Amino acid sequence: MAEQQRVSIPGTTLFDDIQAQKGYALNKMCFSFNDKANRDAFKADEAAYCARFGLTAPQLAAVQSRNVLQLIAAGGNVYYLAKFAGIFGLDVQDIGAQQTGMSKDEFKQKLLNAGQ
Amino acid sequence: MAKIVGSIVTSHVPAIGRAIAGNLQNEPYWKPFFDAFPPIHRWLDEVKPDVAVVVYNDHGLNFFLDKMPTFSVGAAPEYRNADEGWGIPTLPPFTGDTELSWHLINQLVNKEFDLTTCQEMLVDHAFTLPLKLLWPQEGACPIKVVPVCINTVQFPIPSASRCYKLGEAIGEAIAAWDSDARVVVIGTGGLSHQLDGERAGFINKPFDLQFMQSLVDNPKWATQYTVEQLVEHTGSQGIELLMWLAARATIKGDVRALQNTYHLPISNTAAGVMLLEPLA
């Protein structure tokens, strides 16, 4: 394998070749949630829907937990995960709050503070 | 020959779609952002572009990880918006300009940009919302469009320097197009924001402001950074400034900023809007 320097940015997972391979099944399922029929099928029978995509054990556990950091660790890409979060009516501030361990109001305040 | 009348760069945060649908433009949260647009509408009424080349990034509507082109150009007679999964209203189809599409494709490949060409292409919020901001009237967008999509989903992401060169090549191709069309180039995305990880909510106002100024004073400024450095400075999704850079680079020589708005936050994002007009 060619020499490649991996860059480390705290609190950040670059969606690189490693993540793209690891997360393929999970991201493929999340991509399918562009269609309402698929979102409905997931809601109707979550286990059966996940089984169709062959999720890995960590991916299944992460989906069950609804935990975004865990979903990222399992290879999830945030653009596809946003479609998964949409099923539960969660927006990017909900998932921002969850990932940073804040309440949504605290997270919004953090964003406001960035403008000062 | 065709002429680039100007370049407009703007954020494309999905929440803008909700604000438009809910008529929230005058709410205190939204007003500073939406106020950037009436002067641009007046400018568009004056310069009357015929076609918009829209440089944007797909977020998993048209492209999945099975096939992920670095640069792709639409060559369709019509582009449809579709459900992205999290519930903003779908906008009406956009009319393509296939003559300009194929002209761009031919010229760009000839200049060694090995593109993916798309005769069918769904366009997501990053394409549709900026056009709705610029042409807010009911119904379909009144001018023709050519989408140019840059991969910012999966690394390796093309470098700032490469995106700048792509923009220059698009500008040269438009200038060489045997047409009297007036072309506006739109770049969408940014500015600093990060949706994922413990660093979610990251915003870097000083960097954003420096970047915006650089588009006027020193447009290649951002090309000194690697993609990873840009992520460090602007957040994982702040990398969308690449689209602004490519759009700016389509204009040869100096520009003046006729509109320059920076406002944060919109959702998790520092939002920016600029209208750049060629001086020459």
TrEMBL record, chain A:
Pfam families documented for this protein: LigA
Name used for this protein in its record: Protocatechuate 4,5-dioxygenase alpha chain
Gene3D superfamilies on file: Dioxygenase LigAB, LigA subunit
GO molecular-function term, one example from the UniProt record: protocatechuate 4,5-dioxygenase activity
EC number: 1.13.11.8
Top-level taxonomy: Bacteria, Pseudomonadati, Pseudomonadota, Betaproteobacteria, Neisseriales
Coiled coil: none
InterPro entries: LigA_sf, Xdiol_dOase_LigA
Keywords from the named record: Dioxygenase, Oxidoreductase
Matching CDD domains: LigA_like_1 (cd07925)
